[in-house]
Amino acid sequence: MRIVSLLPSATEIVCSLGLEEQLVGVTHECDFPTAVRRLPKVTRLHSPADGTSAEIDRLVVERLSVGEALYTLDMALLESLQPDLIVTQSLCGVCAIAEREVQAAVCILPGRPRVVNLEPTSLDGVLASIRTVAAAAGVVDRADHVVADLRRRIDAVVSRVAAIRRRSRTILLEWIDPLFTCGHWSPELVRLAGAIEGLGQEGKPSRRARWEEIVLWQPETLVLACCGFDVERTLRDLPILTAQPGWAELPCVRDNRVYVVDGAAYFSRPGPRLVDGLEILADVLHPGTAPLGSPTTALRHVGNLTGASG
User: Fold this and answer.
1) Which of 86, 98, 175, 299 could lock 180 by a disulfide, CB 3.0 to 4.6 Å apart?
2) CB neighbours of 155 closer than 8 A, spacing ≥ 6?
3) Residue 71 pairs with which residues in a beta bridge?
4) Angle formed by the axes of helices 123-137 and 140-161, to 10°?
5) DSSP sequence for 38-102
6) What domains sit in the chain, N to C, each tagged with a CATH number?
7) What gap in Å lies between CA 95 and CA 63, rounded to an integer?
8) Residue 293 belongs to what H/E stretch?
């Protein structure tokens, strides 16, 4: 079977099922596992890769307001790859090819490949997506092993934080300029890791937030997991937060509990590495209680860098 993935999380799911050799095309953002970077890129980005967060947000708003996605398909390349299976999603208009563009492509491709559309909004939904892809690729048994291992790790975190009585007030932000709360699976990850997310709602999209909401919640822990950004890129936007009125008086700042994580790898993508994100959160919230499941480059403790700001 020849598989084309139209989003990074689908690429990670396909590879987790041992189907890496059957991938023939991926998006320009697919970078894990490392070997997929050599595959043909069937998408192109409309936004400037080096734009500021505010510029990226403005472009997203403009394109979505007219029903256009940020990415477009390379139809000539896609046709040459002759896929049997295309894995995509319509959950987030920012993160994927417009659904109508995918359907139009399928109509002209030889053999009319099967399209699998993934729309998980929760951790269970992600596990179900793994089974969906496995079924479409004819490897149902492999999903049993992958899902069982991920479930074991989830249960391990939950059991380790179960005895913690006081759950800290926490905020996980998905964007800094402008401010966006976390959404979909991320508030669930915070809850499972043993804290209370003050602004995000489980299963609901992220939303624009006002700085006053953060001040009112008085978070004891602040985690910055910017969508599509790694740690170093997120750190570039940190001064935007530290310049806000009342920053230095927030409990998370006073107590040096501000963290930057690799949002692109462990929080933005609804794939297997969300479980790594859960382990990261548990370690941040309760040091020593749960293992850090990812490299140290995925996390930066920045609380001690901001105490003089405000």
Assistant:
1) 175
2) none
3) 45
4) 170
5) GSPB-EEE-S-TT--HHHHHHHHHHHHHTT--SEEE-HHHHHHH--SEEEEE-S-TTTS--HHHH
6) 3-119 (3.40.50.1980), 163-305 (3.40.50.1980)
7) 12
8) none
